[in-house]
Each structure stands twice: as structure tokens, then as C-alpha cells.
Specification:
Helix content is 53%, strand content 18%. It contains 3 helices and 3 strands.
């Protein structure tokens, strides 16, 4: 199993994280700001729910993909 780390939970970091979880990878999403991490997870969850509505994902896959993201404010947690 491959595990990736994405540093920064802005627009680009969130997009990279989404691509990786859609390919069934585990991702460590790191940012110095906990609020930004929360916003990123919220954005990702909304995108996954939209994908489920369009038939790209099954509803039960959303939780699995969100759980594949580990967030932290510390690089040492990777």
C-alpha cells in the first residue's frame, strides 16, 4: 500500500488529496492551520457527495475515502 503526504491544504493541496483518495491511496494532509485542514476535509466531503450523486461513487465509498485522509499540523506525524 502506498501512502502519500500532501503539504498544504489550500486549493492545490486539496485537489491533489482528492486525486489520491480517488485512486484509493492513503494521504497525510499536513497544514500549519487546523481550520484550513477542517475546511479542506469539508470541501472534499462535498465533492465526494457530488460524485456519488452523479454515479461516479457509491454512497458507502464516501466514508472510506474520507477515512483514508489523515490530517495533522506536524510534519513529524508522517
Amino acid at each position: 500500500m502506498k501512502i502519500y503526504a500532501v503539504i498544504g491544504s489550500g486549493l492545490m493541496g486539496t485537489g491533489i488529496t482528492q486525486s489520491l483518495i480517488m485512486a484509493d491511496y492513503t494521504v497525510y494532509l499536513i497544514d500549519i492551520n487546523n481550520d484550513k485542514l477542517g475546511k479542506s476535509i469539508h470541501y472534499l466531503k462535498n465533492n465526494l457527495e457530488d460524485a456519488a450523486k452523479k454515479g461516479i461513487l457509491k454512497d458507502d465509498e464516501i466514508k472510506k475515502k474520507i477515512n483514508a485522509i489523515k490530517t495533522s499540523t506536524k510534519l513529524e506525524d508522517i
